[in-house]
Amino acid sequence: MKRDFPNLCKPIEIGGLTFRNRMCSAPMGATDITAEGSPGPRTLGFYEARAKGGAACVTVSELVVHPATDGSQMLHLSLSTPGQLGAFAYVADAIKRHGAVASIELSHSGQYAGTYMVDKKSKGDLCQYGPSDGVRPDGIPVKALTHDQIDEIVAAYANAAALAKRAGFQMCMVHAGHGWLINQFLSPWFNKRDDEYGGILENRTRFARRVLEAVREATGPGFPIELRISGSELFDGGYGVDEGVRIAQELEDCIDLLHVSAGSYQFGFSITHPSMFREHGCNVHLAAEIKKHVSVPVACVGGLSDPEQMEAIIERGDADVCVMARALLADPELPNKVMANKADEIVHCLRCFVCMAERPITQTRRCAVNPRIGRELEGLSVTPAKARKRVLVVGGGIAGMVAAHTAALRGHEMLLCEATDSLGGILKTEKALPFKHDMYRLGLTYETLCRNAGVRIMTNRTVDADYVESIAPDACIVAVGSEPMRLPIPVEEGSYVLSLDDLYLTDADPEGSVCVIGGGLSGCECALNLARQGKDVHLVEMRDELAPDANIRQRPILLAELEGEDIHVLTGTAARKVTPEGVQVEGPNGSEVVPCDAVVCAIGQRSRTKAVDSLRDCAPFVRVVGDALRPANITLAVYEAFHAALDV
Questions:
Q1: Is the entire prediction scored with pTM above 0.85?
Q2: Strand partners, 102
């Protein structure tokens, strides 16, 4: 067959192993790790899903090589723990049996030990080690590693690699980026040593070289070594891409694949893991530059999910392999869909950081658009229903479309009714926000999925109890969504007040200054977008902080973006009245008027309860999902809709 993306689908040989395509699964933390550091059954299912989805290589993360100096709640591997080698062997086998290469990431966090510990108090009690004595940005002291400890850690890398190979892994990745220990030795910002491990570049790469040589000796030929580096640390005092090139040249004789990432922990989380406010593939230029100066294959990473972009990267020669993490959380089947010329069915990552926010809180995974994430053992595919039923879904937003698509995959006769002239629901508003285009595209993708699955779609169809009775469905899933709340304060005649729907779904373009009332996630995003359009923006929030409804990973990034714009922020301030001249507010400094030409109400959404109540008894099985149940977020909407369809 003729591939839509021939370069991306082309095999490549690395260190004697054949990768079936150029799409690889980046290291992503496991979902259930025992107290001894063994992978649990859900971890097996997690990695197997990426292998079954068509990735050429699946890398298990993170195997801590020396727990004595890197105590954390990550994977360990030792023969002293009964059953541990077997647990890793089962994971390696689960990856290989689907045709993917099984790899494992060898890691030491150095002075950032315990990063992913849920118990942050215990994290503070750990002894933090690094190349040099010092104090972390968060005030925790760091102790320089002794020569004996360095020797122990080098030996530990070799031992971990040998055990991983014994367990059935076919290659390994040595993590030397992102501010972890090897990167700390490479970095002039972290490394202040004056011995053979510090100073000139040859000395700063000595530790990395010793590790790589020890791994090579322990594993022998035919076991490729991948080295992950930050092509540039991208902060003042760290090394830039020119030195990244020199680091790569110093070490390329020890490796089979060079994996070029970017940034450093605590100095650039949204750089290493590009946020929605950055371009997709914004770090690829680092791989492209380094590839010009080395002879080994080069992998790129960072916010990649679009097959067209990745095809162009390979075609231009910017990199030999494209590596994805969050994209394969959102849709593990992405590589299979690319290989089968079904790119229009890819469910793209929203870069919303739900996946990363959940892990440090509960040590599980959750994804806004993939309800099966971390729960793969409960079933990698939707199983057919025992009996085919007539199912009505009311509402064509994301919850309705997920429910309809899932029920259709189970073999039910599906009808999806939407009151407006198009599907998408609240996702249609995201088209107005350039940094949320992926969320808008999600609606288009699910419409395609629904149509391809045989869902009959009726738009401009308001559903009431009489209509439902006329078609007599066996089941009804109510996903009628929510609507913007109105301002609960006086609004004088002549005032120009818009809801978020008014602003995003019409041609409304308020001139002059704008006051956004409501500093939750939606209000902050609105204010940011208006400011980027060059408008004078005031943001009024009655609580003491902005965006408390944003997740713990997304919130600081959003706040940093807001700080980068000239937005007048008033927290702890309540709006009392809207007049043609502005908004009368009451805050810490008493009453004042915020002058503005237009007001945007972003105080939240309310469920369409009347529509919901009218349909509660319309069928033998009725389930209310998404914002129709209670306004929350896309993650819950998708999860509820998916499982409602499974329950029919």
A1: yes
A2: 58
Sequence length of the chain is 648
Residues 267-279, mean pLDDT to the nearest whole number: 94
Q: Mean pLDDT: which of 116-125, 375-384, 535-544 is highest?
A: 535-544
Give whole-number Cα distances, 406 to 206, 370, 373, 413, in Å: 54, 12, 15, 11
CA 159 to chain centre: 32
Residue type, 182: I
Please write the tens of the pLDDT for every residue from 84-137: 999 999 999 999 999 999 999 999 999 998 766 555 555 555 678 999 999 988
Residue 426 backbone zone (phi > 0: left; psi -120 to 50: alpha; other: beta): alpha
298-300-301 Cα angle (round to 5): 155
Cα 35 versus chain centre, distance: 26
Q: Which run of H or E residues covers position 568?
A: strand 567-571
List the structure tokens of 246.
Answer: 């020199």
- Is the distance from CB of 8 to CB of 22 less than 8 angstroms? yes
Query: Locate tokens 């954390």: which residue?
Result: 72
Residue tagged 């209670």 (tokens): 630
Alpha-carbon distance of 395 to 381, in angstroms, equals 25
Q: What are phi and psi of 461, to 5 degrees?
A: -125, 100
Residue with tokens 């994290």, as numbered in its chain: 123
**CA-to-CA distance for 638 and 371, rounded, in angstroms?**
7
Roughly what angle, to the nearest 10 degrees, separates helices 284-291 and 241-251? 50
Do the Cβ atoms of 21 and 54 come closer than 8 Å?
yes
DSSP for 15-57 reads TTEEESSSEEEEEEE-S-B-TTS-B-HHHHHHHHHHHHTT-SE
- The closest of 483, 500, 488 to 610, measured between CA atoms, is 483
Q: Half-sphere exposure of 592 toward its Cβ, with a 13 Å CA cutoff?
A: 10
Give the strand pairing for 141-144 and 134-135. antiparallel
The rounded distance, in Å, linking the Cα atoms of 557 and 202 is 36
Strands across the sheet with 413-417, in order? 456-458, 413-417, 390-394, 475-478, 621-624
Sheet of 497-499: strands edge to edge? 497-499, 598-601, 513-517, 536-541, 567-571
Give the closest residue to 568 by CA, choosing from 513, 521, 495.
513
pLDDT digits (tens, 9 = 90+) for 399-447: 999 999 999 999 999 999 999 999 999 999 999 999 999 999 999 999 9
DSSP calls for 212-243: HHHHHHHH-TT--EEEEEES---STTS--HHH
Alpha-carbon gap, residue 28 to 49, rounded angstroms? 13
d(CA 162, CA 150): 19
> First and final CA of the chain: distance in angstroms?
38
Instruction: Match 């301030």 to its residue by tokens.
Output: 573
Percent residues over pLDDT 70 in the chain: 98
Beta-carbon-side half-sphere exposure of residue 428 (alpha carbons within 13 Å):
15
Look at residue 310 and tell me whether its pLDDT is greater than 90.
yes
